[in-house]
């Protein structure tokens, strides 16, 4: 039979038509369609099974660890607590006389053994074991596994290797599982019903009603298969299974990956262990009615490239459900990714245009984050080409990212011609003054947009007047009901009073779901003056001068401006900050920018005893403080765990130098999540260093050769600094020569000024 002609014929000689009037395949065409559908169905059913096997591999290591943690906690709980669980009905005298002093001892004893104790009958044994089981269950919800990268053992290595497979599969595997289950539920019954359509004989002997049902099922199968192909589900399923079935990573590969993205590993741990923060705390202590409405919204993550932690998904749903809100999470909790998740949800539902307004210092970060964490199109709208970029966005859609200063310069009437699906305003406290030009520009767009999301890390309960000003732009009806007494009553009272429009979580609220270390790359662009200083340094081959060129013009330095913003946000949250740089000159510029209250700088010329005195004085300050330090002087030997924010002014040639500096704050005794911000300049030596040093082969080599000597002596790890510097200088000279069209002179050897 001719395959192309078979699609239009039927088993009884009539032309079968689908619901839309198109021919229903029969005979050979039907067999081919059913074969494709069955293969698709087989692959769809395999994906959840593959992920379940990967999860089981993690649980085989994780569950004994959790059991040991639970046993340890139960061993510290007195046996008298069993009476509390049973409301005093359990008699413990016989157990206590038999030497049972803790809940753990009861929980670890079998029913038969308990019944052998004089005075303990079947009822008492069952009650005691049930009560101990309830306590164990409650304890299990509170314990969490911490992975110590500095002290790996066989068990933690096995756990990291098992998690590695799920981490590599990432968010796409989770989406593949969801899509596979939905497709299997839809396609499975229809393929079964349509099966006779592949046989001419079966269709001939079937009754008219049966044939009609088969044709209807074949039409549905064809539509489902076509839809799956259009959505690229076969490729998604194949990639997910390939990732989930990959061979176990080597210990070094798994540990390196864990160091690079520990957040994803800890997110998986929280999910699989069932541990996490108290739900009320993770939901910002919202009233039950609002929290229920937010939970009821199903977040569509098909346009996302990352997995969200529970509190982050809730924040995105809050923005969508409440429409015009402020998310004021403490710095380091991922406000940006929550906003991107909300945009991605709306894009998946058909919205095409979005607008993000932010300070110039974070515009590049927003652009990079949108592209890295979603499939959305990011369009930077700033600088000399902002009008052309804005016109491109208006025509093609995507996420326009612009600055407060550029927003009012965009073509008038633009807001009326294009209506974004959501307006996001980062660092929203910048528009607290309603008379300011930037505030008026933001308000003009906000009036025309249904969904508006303000982001700020500044705790609004400490600035009720600022909050009232911001909320007038979002929910004018709510502003009069907010008074200073709400802020004075404490953060929870304030949050409940402003719940319809405000969500804030502190690190302590969601600490159980956070990694111990959050690393953020802060990308900035050169200004005119520091850009010229950089080009001169490149032309002369001065590698070290290239590294500090971003601070050559402190008054216009984008890196310094971002550093001031980070320190300001830490001040608002009463967090201590340590600022590291390789260069004394850079630290001097930072000190001038921050003022005389900053401690230090610690440098090689400061005697060790004096260094410790400075660290002690910094640690003794109640609340916010800033310590400046040369990375060589402060990166080893000093404990700075009072600091929970680390700022690196430039990337280091030796990765171990950065690791050791961060370890001064991220160490035993640190009770807060440590945030590490690396200040980086695009199209510069910074970008070349990051690209070269981030390659896994280099990290793998550094990790595999780790030793006590390497940890204490950075020079022992990386021995090719001169060659690395030479290579970067040459690449930058070639790049800049290409931009200017001038021939490149032969590069002199890199040297310090």
TrEMBL record:
The EC number(s) this enzyme carries: 3.6.4.-
Keywords recorded for this protein, A-Z: ATP-binding, Helicase, Hydrolase, Nucleotide-binding
Name of one Pfam family that matches: SNF2-rel_dom
Helicase C-terminal domain segment(s): 562-715
Pro residues: compositionally biased ranges: 744-753
Protein name from the UniProt record: DEAD/DEAH box helicase
Molecular function (Gene Ontology), one example: hydrolase activity
Gly residues composition-biased segments: 1-11
Region Disordered: start-end pairs: 1-24, 730-753
CDD domains assigned to the protein according to its UniProt record, in alphabetical order: DEXHc_Snf, SF2_C_SNF
Annotated Helicase ATP-binding domain residues: 316-477
Keyword Nucleotide-binding recorded: yes
InterPro entries reported for this sequence: Helicase_ATP-bd, Helicase_C-like, P-loop_NTPase, SNF2-like_sf, SNF2/RAD54-like_C, SNF2_N
Protein source organism: Streptomyces rubiginosohelvolus
């Amino acid at each position: 039979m001719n395959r192309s002609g078979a699609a239009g014929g039927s088993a009884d000689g009539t032309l079968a038509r689908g619901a839309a009037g198109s021919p229903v395949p029969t005979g050979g065409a039907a067999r081919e369609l059913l074969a494709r559908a069955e293969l698709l169905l087989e692959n769809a059913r395999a994906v959840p099974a593959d992920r379940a096997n990967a999860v089981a591999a993690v649980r085989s290591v994780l569950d004994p660890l959790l059991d040991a943690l639970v046993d340890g906690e139960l061993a510290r709980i007195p046996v008298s607590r069993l009476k509390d669980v049973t409301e005093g009905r359990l008699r413990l005298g016989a157990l206590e006389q038999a030497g049972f002093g803790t809940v753990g001892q009861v929980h670890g004893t079998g029913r038969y053994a308990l019944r052998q104790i004089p005075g303990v009958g079947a009822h008492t044994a069952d009650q005691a074991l049930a009560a101990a089981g309830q306590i164990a269950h409650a304890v299990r919800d509170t314990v969490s596994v911490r992975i110590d990268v500095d002290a790996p053992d066989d068990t933690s290595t096995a756990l990291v290797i098992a998690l590695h497979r799920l981490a590599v599969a990432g968010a796409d595997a989770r989406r593949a599982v969801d899509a596979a289950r939905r497709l299997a539920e839809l396609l499975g019954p229809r393929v079964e019903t349509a099966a006779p359509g592949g046989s001419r004989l079966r269709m001939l002997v079937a009754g008219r009603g049966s044939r009609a049902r088969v044709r209807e099922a074949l039409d549905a199968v064809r539509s489902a298969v076509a839809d799956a192909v259009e959505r690229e589900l076969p490729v998604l399923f194949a990639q997910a299974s390939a990732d989930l079935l990959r061979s176990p990573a080597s210990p070094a590969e798994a540990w390196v990956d864990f160091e690079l993205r520990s957040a994803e590993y800890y997110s998986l741990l929280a999910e699989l262990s069932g541990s996490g923060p108290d739900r009320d705390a993770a939901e910002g202590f919202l009233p039950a009615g609002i929290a229920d409405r937010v939970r009821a919204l199903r977040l569509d993550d098909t346009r996302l490239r990352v997995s969200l932690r529970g509190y982050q998904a809730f924040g995105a749903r809050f923005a969508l459900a409440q429409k015009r809100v402020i998310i004021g999470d403490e710095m380091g909790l991922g406000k940006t990714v929550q906003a991107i998740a909300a945009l991605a949800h709306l894009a998946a539902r058909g919205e095409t245009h979005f607008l993000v307004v932010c300070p110039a210092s974070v515009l590049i970060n927003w652009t990079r984050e949108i592209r890295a964490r979603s499939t959305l199109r990011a369009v930077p709208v700033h600088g000399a080409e902002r009008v052309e970029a804005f016109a491109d966005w208006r025509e093609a859609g995507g996420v326009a990212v612009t600055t407060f200063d550029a927003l009012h310069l965009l073509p008038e009437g633009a807001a009326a011609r294009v209506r974004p699906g959501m307006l996001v305003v980062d660092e929203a406290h910048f528009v607290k003054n309603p008379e300011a030009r930037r505030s008026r520009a933001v308000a003009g767009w906000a009036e025309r947009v249904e969904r508006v999301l303000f982001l700020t890390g500044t705790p609004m309960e400490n600035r009720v007047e600022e909050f009232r000003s911001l909320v007038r732009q979002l929910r004018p009806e709510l502003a009069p009901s907010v008074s200073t007494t709400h802020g004075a009553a404490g953060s929870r009272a304030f949050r409940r009073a402003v719940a319809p429009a405000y969500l804030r979580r502190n690190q302590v609220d969601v600490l159980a779901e956070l990694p111990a270390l959050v690393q953020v790359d802060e990308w900035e662009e050169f200004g005119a003056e520091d850009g010229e200083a950089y080009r001169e340094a490149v032309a002369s081959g001065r590698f070290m001068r290239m590294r500090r060129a971003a601070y050559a013009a402190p008054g216009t330095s984008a890196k310094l401006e971002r550093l001031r913003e980070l320190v300001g946000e830490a001040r608002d949250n009463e967090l201590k900050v340590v600022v590291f740089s390789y260069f004394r000159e850079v630290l001097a510029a930072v000190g001038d920018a921050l003022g005389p209250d900053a401690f230090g700088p610690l440098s090689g010329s400061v005697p060790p005893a004096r260094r410790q005195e400075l660290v002690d004085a910094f640690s003794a300050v109640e609340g916010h403080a800033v310590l400046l330090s040369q990375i060589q002087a402060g990166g080893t030997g000093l404990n700075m765990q009072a600091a929970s924010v680390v700022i690196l002014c430039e990337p280091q040639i030796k990765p171990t130098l950065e690791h050791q500096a961060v370890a001064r704050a991220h160490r035993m005794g640190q009770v807060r999540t440590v945030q590490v911000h690396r200040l980086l300049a695009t199209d510069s030596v910074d970008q070349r260093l990051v690209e070269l040093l981030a390659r896994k082969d280099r990290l793998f080599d550094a990790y595999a050769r780790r030793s006590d000597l390497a940890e204490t002596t950075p020079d022992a790890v990386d021995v090719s600094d001169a060659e690395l510097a030479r290579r970067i200088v040459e690449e930058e000279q070639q790049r800049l020569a290409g931009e200017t069209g001038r021939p490149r002179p032969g590069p002199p050897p890199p040297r310090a000024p």
